[in-house]
Here is the input.
Amino acid sequence: MPRTAPTARQRRLGTELRKMREHAGMNVAQAAQQLGVDRTRISNTEAGRFGVSEERVRALAAIYSCGDTAYIDALVDMALERVQGWWEEYHGKLPAGALDLAELEHHAVSLRSMQPMHIPGLLQTEDYAKAVFSTAVPDLTAVELRRRLSHRLRRRDVLDRDDAPECTFLVHEAALRMQFGGAKVARGQLGHLLEASERDNVAVRVIPFSAGGFPGAGASVLYAAGPVPQLDTVQLDVATGVALVDAETLVTNYWQVLERTQGLSLSPEDTRDFVRAIAEQL
Here is the structure.
């Protein structure tokens, strides 16, 4: 039976198979003939509506003359995933983008984000997150607020895994000075940020006002590295929720934006001193 609502990761696997076919210069009809299936099978697989076996992935790679074994193995791993993630508990209860984000973070090898106005979600305290959600328009109901808060806090568990991703968080000074929830909540958040910055897999780097302008200054960007570069993904916060970007040129551009911005940021050690100084002013 075809999937009625494939996840972002299932759609991504289909997208990669489509890219592989297109790089081989084949159309859908040619691929279907080579594989010995109906062309709708190829179309549905590439749309993420049908699952695909390891054998089918490797057969398609052979038909498309793809010799990148690391890339093929990574696609096979995606195809073999059968266990639902914890975020599926929120299916139909939160926007699909929230689930896509949790899934993206869960599978990332490393994460690098840039936040101009908020503390990164993975580093937010419960009080701070609640204060941020309380600014939503239209107002969230009590149930909606509780669900979003629960989901936000569960996302943080990715940092505690044995195979936790390496994370770099670029945070603008404006985000440190925004007092969501008031001074007490802000002090607690900055204290939590300092504690998180001591983790082996976490680097927090502040972009001070004195750094001036920087590329992408108005956007929140999350770069999630996959097991191979072809599976890197960029997540953007947009007015309608979450947008995932996987087009190679755009992904490369966002990598360069983050590289340049990180070059303007303070070192992790200087960042801790900077955060402490702001906390003392509250």
Remarks:
- Residues 108 and 221 are 15 Å apart (CA to CA).
